[in-house]
Write a structure and sequence with these properties.
The complex is a heterotrimer of chains A (159), B (783) and C (293). Chain B has 783 residues and is of the alpha+beta class. Chain B contains 21 helices and 29 strands. Chain B folds into 3 domains: 206 residues, Aldehyde Oxidoreductase, domain 3; 334 residues, Aldehyde oxidase/xanthine dehydrogenase, molybdopterin binding domain (Aldehyde Oxidoreductase, domain 4), CATH 3.30.365; 115 residues, Aldehyde Oxidoreductase, domain 4 (2-Layer Sandwich), CATH 3.30.365. The relative contact order of chain C is 0.12. The chains are: A alpha+beta (159), B alpha+beta (783), C alpha+beta (293).
């Protein structure tokens, strides 16, 4: 199995690596680059815990081959945390206040899905928020507190 | 402080993506393990050839049953209170016979998961398939296949409770309603799959296991017992755990095999289940068929209830807790919210060639609740009574000097009436009727359902302890006054997201008298925490919180005593508030930081010349109380599409009582998440096996959990009893657990709502999940 | 869950992709968005010797329109089908269907070509292509050909494409004044594969008052298919006359149409419901509830 050269941008840094073709983007980000916010919940594209941004759009890390990220811009929650992204920072605050997480395993994927929604639709209603989360399993919260947290952020922005 | 919302102490870190779950831990030199699992539900293993796999690139070892038996004992899931229970021997890897799809047959250890998976394909197993038991009926069939020679009828355990006059009560009753209820097979789906890293140190005879688990102390016992190690040389460490729900409360064959392999290789071995393995090998639960009857008089007084339950466990009794739990709840809780003269309940657990079954959030409670509440609604419909009123007039009165339930269970005072009053105040009957009428006008079938529930939490030692099962019902807490005046320590509660660590820290902070951010608790490490029960049975805040309160009270007393010496006052005149020593006139000017500095670095300056201890420990567990109960009422509103059979839950509400609420944000979170799991069980979740025992729902695309779009908003109303909000600071506070209460009542309420919706069509459905196919079949039995 | 080993070819141009396909044929799998292929690789249900990644090659991600038809490149993502203004004008039923494909992150990755080439009977696009009489453009080193949708979907996960052929795009006649559509999907959760779904396209016949209606079904059978009997009833009556009685007849006709094709009576029944609801939508001009995701 010939290894493949992969050159891409990850969380702002230029990366060049050789990967096995079968390596998924999620495994590459976790194992080669230690971006462990990319969680493997199902490995078959259902749960959304491995969500990352590729060229600014949400993607499943587990159903994307690392080799396919060649030439692309990849972001994980690590790259958007610590106040580097105002939307993520605001969501992190409202998630804290509203109990928008419990075990935290789905949380990185949920935050990135919410950010994508807010980039396109800054004032979504609750139904639209739920639609945007349609591909993310949270087994702890029952989703309501997550919707509350995103809605609270939206309300703050409207003030 | 307690009674007020506070975010989970780990949440800031988790929100930044800096959780450290099992798969994120770096252990130098750790090897990966994968399993060859049986593709057959029931088969003899004629031969296994692993030569090619052992020679494959990157592979260290391939172990089979006989390799592991050198260091690992087999086990039986016995329980001393049920000597008649069949508990056949189980081993980590199948030896001569496999008994469910997904049962581990070989463990492959190598440099990477991918290398091991490549090697799996080189293992050649010659199976001789046997007829399989793929459902409840097949297990009990006259000519059924016995899964174990020692249990020829496939019955693991039969238990029964029957009050003396129950048959007479049914015979004489003016009205008897009855139905057969079917409950699908479910599992918990913690989003982080199971996993562990086992490291064995032969020089010390010690085993360290980093484990995504709820009960590290129980695992310390299990690893020590089965690997023949000294328990005090076995250390279990739980990192961040991505959900548990009972699924990570268990002993797993594959996890035992990992520890045995680590011992044989003397190298760290890591195993993280992938989701396909989880679906076949995670603990499964429910899967009951219950025939229920309720007798009433024409005036609507409930007289007697009877439940006959059969449930399908897997091919073994679950070790070490046994498979008695599901049935026990049915035997304890059937009819329990109501004042019945007589009651009977029988429960049979039967072996099948399906996945291992055990404890998932609720453990039998949801079954008893759905049967009881379904029968109550059935009776209301037959009597033309209102479901609110019929419940109200029949609530049982429990508490001191009150009789036990008709099934003989003694409960503390449970405010059913207060709960249903609060629920109805927030969701008035008239408004519900108006909503239902309007939806019916639009051509939908709409309905609402109620479910009264009891949750038995915080169990004492009367079940496991008396049954010689080494599961602790106690918890520990050790607290230190640190040099900077903060409180640090260890607690034996464990955290999987529910927030108990935060709750205990809140209790400690309040009891000592410091802000919450001055408390830091480390949990999940058996080396420091003490042999506590961990997370199961909605116990950890109620019990671990009490241990925390006790330790905090002792530490506070010492701090006050030191302060009194320094201030030349008597301790009774002093208090600690917000980290400062205060008296009746306000702050004394002396803070915990100053006291701690003195005590740690210049202790000789303390008055009296005594040794400061600066550390306090406590352990706590119920002694004679079998459990602490909470209760409540749930309301579910659904719309049913009569043409497609799709059920849409549009609203869900809970009014509950759980004693003191330490942190309403976390309590609400437990209810909402628990309700969502109950709704999933009632609507879309089901592990389906065919008659050959093949799993048909082997991925998350097929086992369908609730998602954001389909889950309604869930509201939670807390019910308080007068006098409980201001507890005596010197007495141990009264907490009941809430971890399972949402799940316990949600399926029942939803099923009742579906039947309310179907009633105008003279249709009924007593089976969950209420799939479109089943709803259409109920509406149109001719089709 | 890691894929079995395979060789990887990153095709930069269509020609490179076709050359690789010519060399490896059915040993090769085409990777576009990867949303179906990668899970199948991970479960080792697909075991190609070679994966040809066309996800980044240039030239197949166009949406172009001439005076009659719209041409959509195979690499256009579902997300763009859902949101693109030109698609909304010229192929509104396609835009509507795209909203129902899986969930948001999958729509960001998955492609029109991938969804069609897979031939999944439970997926939306094959039925949309059937109802719209799409022409699928297949290319190989042997040349290019156009296949009508009606001839393309042969069975479950089975199409008329030869092992060395690549689906490079589709062409569809653009909507004209007087055309209409209905789309209805029955699924238990958003993004689940449909229990049944229906696509109805009504094309006004130029110069007459009549219209031609095509009804396509997905999810209910082994392959996406046309419901000719239901379509005939809807073609014979002007949309305003689609009353409850006619819709009941459409339901019954759909079940007849599917007699040999449906998975079972339950799915056939739901297909009838989906067709009737899609027809009502078309008649009343009421689309599905909007959503932002």
């Amino acid at each position: 199995m010939k290894r493949v050269v992969l050159a891409c941008e990850v969380n702002g840094a230029r990366i060049t690596a050789e990967v096995e073709p079968r390596t998924t983007l999620a495994d590459f980000l976790r194992d080669a680059l230690a971006f462990t916010s990319v969680h493997i919940g199902c490995g078959h594209g259902v749960c959304g815990a491995c969500t990352v941004l590729v060229d600014g759009r949400t993607r499943r890390g587990c159903t994307t081959l690392a080799a396919s990220a060649h030439g692309r811009r990849v972001e994980t929650l690590e790259g958007l945390s610590d106040a580097s992204d105002p939307v993520i920072a605001g969501l992190q605050r409202t998630f804290l206040d509203h109990g928008g997480l419990q075990c935290g395993f789905c949380t990185p994927g949920i935050l990135l899905a919410a950010r994508e929604l807010l980039a396109r639709q800054p004032a979504p209603d609750r139904a639209e928020i739920r639609e945007a989360l349609a591909g993310n399993i949270c087994r702890c919260t029952g989703y309501g507190p997550i919707v509350d947290a995103i809605a609270a952020y939206v309300a703050e922005q409207a003030e | 402080m307690t009674g007020h919302p506070a975010p989970g102490l780990r949440w800031r870190r988790l929100l930044a993506g800096r959780g450290r779950y099992l798969a994120d831990l770096a252990v130098k030199g750790a090897r990966e393990a994968v399993f060859l699992r049986s593709p057959h539900a029931h088969a003899d293993i004629l031969s296994i050839n692993v030569t090619a796999a052992r020679d494959a690139p990157g592979i260290d070892a391939v172990f089979l049953h006989d390799d592991l038996s050198k260091v690992l004992k087999p086990w039986r899931g016995t329980h001393g209170l049920f000597p008649g229970m069949a508990a056949p021997e189980q081993s980590a890897l199948a030896g001569k016979r496999v008994r469910h799809v997904g049962e581990p047959v070989a463990i492959v250890i190598g440099e990477s998961r991918s290398a091991c998976e490549d090697a799996l394909e080189l293992i050649d197993v010659d199976y001789e398939p046997l007829p399989a038991v793929g459902d409840i009926e097949a297990a009990l069939a006259e000519d059924g296949v016995p899964i174990h020679a020692e249990a020829p009828g496939n019955v693991c355990l039969e238990a029964e409770k029957r009050s003396a006059g129950v048959d007479a009560a049914f015979a004489a009753a003016e009205l008897v309603v009855e139905a057969e209820f079917c409950f699908g097979r479910h599992t918990g789906i913690p989003l982080e799959p199971r996993g562990l890293i086992a490291e064995y140190e032969p020089g010390e005879g010690s085993l360290t296991v980093h484990h995504s688990h709820q009960c590290p102390a129980a695992m310390q016992e299990a690893f020590a017992e089965l690997l023949g190690l000294d328990a005090h040389r076995v250390r279990i460490v739980c990192p961040d755990v991505g959900g548990g729900f009972g699924i990570k409360q268990q002993v797993y064959a594959d996890e035992m095999a990992v520890a045995a392999a680590a011992r044989l290789l003397a190298r760290p071995v890591r195993f993280v289940a992938d989701r396909l393995e989880s679906m076949a090998s995670d603990i499964q639960a429910r899967h009951h068929r219950v025939r229920g009857r309720l007798a009433l008089d024409r005036a609507g007084r409930m007289l007697a209830m009877d439940a006959d339950d059969i449930h399908a466990i897997g091919p073994y009794s679950q070790y070490p807790r046994s498979s008695a739990g599901e049935g026990r709840a049915v035997l304890s809780l059937t009819g329990a919210p109501y004042a019945l003269d007589e009651a009977a309940a029988r429960s049979r657990a039967v072996f099948t060639n399906m996945g291992m079954s055990g404890h998932y959030r609720g453990v039998g409670h949801p079954i008893a609740t759905a049967v009881t509440e379904g029968l109550v609604d059935l009776a209301a419909r037959q009597l033309g009574a209102d479901p609110w009123d019929l419940r109200r007039r029949n609530f049982a009165t429990y508490g001191k000097d009150c009789a036990p339930s008709a099934l003989g269970v003694s409960f503390e005072h449970l405010p059913f009436a207060a709960c249903i009053d609060v629920l109805e105040a927030h969701h008035p009957r008239d408004a519900l009727h108006a909503w239902r009428g309007a939806a019916r006008e639009r051509g939908l079938l709409a309905g609402y359902g109620l479910a009264v529930f009891i949750e038995m939490t915080a169990r004492g030692p009367a079940f496991y302890g008396d049954g010689n099962v080494r599961i602790s019902t106690r918890d520990y807490c050790t607290l230190r006054l640190e040099p900077n005046g903060s409180i640090a320590g260890h607690a034996s509660v464990t955290e999987q997201g529910q927030g108990v660590e935060t709750g205990v820290a809140q209790i400690v902070a309040e009891t000592v008298g410091v802000p919450l951010d001055k408390v830091r608790l480390v949990t999940g490490d058996t080396d420091s925490a003490g042999h506590g029960g961990g997370t199961w049975g909605s116990r950890s805040l109620a019990i671990g919180g009490s241990a925390g309160a006790e330790a905090a009270r002792t530490l506070r007393a010492e701090i006050v005593e030191i302060a009194a010496g320094l201030l030349q006052r008597v301790p009774a005149e002093l208090d600690i508030q917000d980290g400062e020593i205060v008296d009746q006139n306000g702050p004394s000017g002396l803070g915990l930081a100053e006291i701690a500095t003195l005590a740690h670095f210049r202790p000789h300056e303390l008055p009296g010349g005594c040794q400061p201890r600066l550390v306090a420990s406590a352990s706590f567990g119920p002694l004679d109380a079998p459990f602490r109960a909470g209760c409540g009422v749930q309301l579910s509103c659904v719309e049913v599409d009569p043409e497609t059979g799709l059920v849409r839950p549009v609203r869900h509400a809970v009014a509950h009582y759980c004693g003191l609420v330490v942190n309403p944000l976390l309590v609400d979170g437990q209810f909402k998440g628990g309700v969502a799991q109950g709704l999933g069980a009632a609507l879309t979740e089901e592990l389906l096996y065919d008659s050959e025992g093949q799993l048909l729902t082997g991925s998350l695309a097929e086992y369908r959990v609730p998602m954001a779009v389909e889950t309604p908003d869930i509201t939670v109303h807390h019910v308080h009893l007068p006098g409980e909000d201001n507890p005596d600071r010197e007495a141990l506070p009264r907490y009941a657990g809430v971890g399972e209460a949402g799940t316990v009542g949600a399926s029942a309420a939803l099923l009742n709502a579906v039947n309310d919706a179907l009633a105008p069509e003279s249709a009924a459905l007593w089976r969950i999940p209420a799939s479109p196919q089943r709803v259409l079949a109920a509406l149109d039995p001719e089709e | 869950m890691t894929p079995a080993p395979f060789e990887y070819i990153r095709a930069e141009t269509v020609e490179e992709a076709l050359a690789a396909l010519a060399e490896y044929g059915d040993e090769a799998a085409i990777l576009a968005g990867g949303q179906s292929l990668v899970p199948m690789l991970a479960m080792r249900l697909a075991r190609p010797a070679v994966v040809i990644d066309i996800g980044s090659l240039a030239g197949l991600d166009h949406v172009a329109r001439d005076d009659r038809a719209v041409s959509v490149g195979a690499l256009v993502r579902h997300r763009r089908m859902e949101l693109d203004a030109e698609i909304a004008r010229a192929l509104p039923v396609f835009a509507e269907a795209a909203r129902f494909v899986a969930t948001p992150a999958i729509r960001n990755a998955g492609t029109v070509g991938g969804a069609l080439a897979l031939g999944d009977p439970a997926a939306e696009y094959p039925a949309v292509a059937l109802a719209l009489e799409a022409r699928l453009r297949l290319a190989s080193t042997r040349g290019e050909r156009c296949v009508d949708a009606a001839d393309f979907f042969i069975g479950a996960m089975e199409t008329a494409a030869a092992p060395d052929e690549l689906l490079i795009g589709i062409e569809i006649d653009a909507a004209a004044p007087g055309d209409g559509f209905g789309f209805y999907e029955i699924a238990e959760r958003r993004g689940d594969y449909a229990l049944a779904g229906a696509v109805i396209v009504r094309r006004a016949e130029t110069g007459t008052a009549g219209a031609r209606v095509r009804v396509a079904i997905f999810g209910a059978g082994e392959v996406a298919c046309l419901a000719e009997g239901a379509a005939a009833i809807l073609s014979d009556a002007p949309a305003p006359a689609w009353d409850a009685g006619l819709l009941q007849a459409v339901k019954d006709a759909t079940r007849d149409d599917l007699r040999d094709l449906a998975l079972d009576a339950f799915h056939a029944r739901l297909a009838g419901v989906a067709v009737a609801r899609a027809a009502r939508q078309l008649a009343e001009g009421e689309p599905n509830e909007r959503r932002a995701a």
